[in-house]
Design a protein that fits this description.
mainly beta, five-stranded antiparallel β-sheet, 0% helix, Jelly Rolls
């Protein structure tokens, strides 16, 4: 399965604006949290899951999300292909990260906030994998 971007929309009238995403189904969501990177370290890399599925929505500012599909969770190749996405809070785009991927989350604007949703509760499964920021040659 590949990452999917569910494109959101915006309606504007004399009352203001309404961001929405009518094509995404929230039924599988079990928890959510917000990431706000430190201004001195705007990149969180690399973390991912073999089993867990996640969804990202920029709720303030802009983010560059880089995804890598892992070939071996113990010792992955350092030369894997990457997929890059840019999310911004001016739309209601939802990026689905399927199981088997790790992510790098880079804030592109100050005080940016990213809503993360998951299909598992916290500590429901042991499925957290992390790699050093410079592990991959991309």
């Amino acid at each position: 399965m590949n990452p999917i971007l569910f494109t959101g929309s915006c309606f504007i009238d004399n009352r203001g604006s309404l961001l929405y995403n009518n094509i995404f189904d929230f039924e599988r969501i079990k928890r959510c949290y917000i990431i706000e990177n430190n201004i001195t370290n705007p990149i969180r890399a690399w973390q991912g899951h073999k089993i867990e599925r996640r969804w990202f929505i920029a709720i303030l500012g802009d983010f560059k999300i880089t995804l890598i599909k892992i070939d071996n969770w113990i010792a992955p190749s350092k030369y894997l292909n990457k997929n890059e996405f840019t999310l911004n809070s001016n739309s209601m785009d939802i990026l689905q990260i399927p199981p088997g991927y790790i992510s790098s989350i880079e804030s592109l604007s100050q005080s940016a906030k990213l809503l993360v949703m998951s299909d598992y509760h916290f500590n429901e499964i042991e499925d957290d994998y992390r790699f050093e920021k410079n592990y991959f040659n991309i």
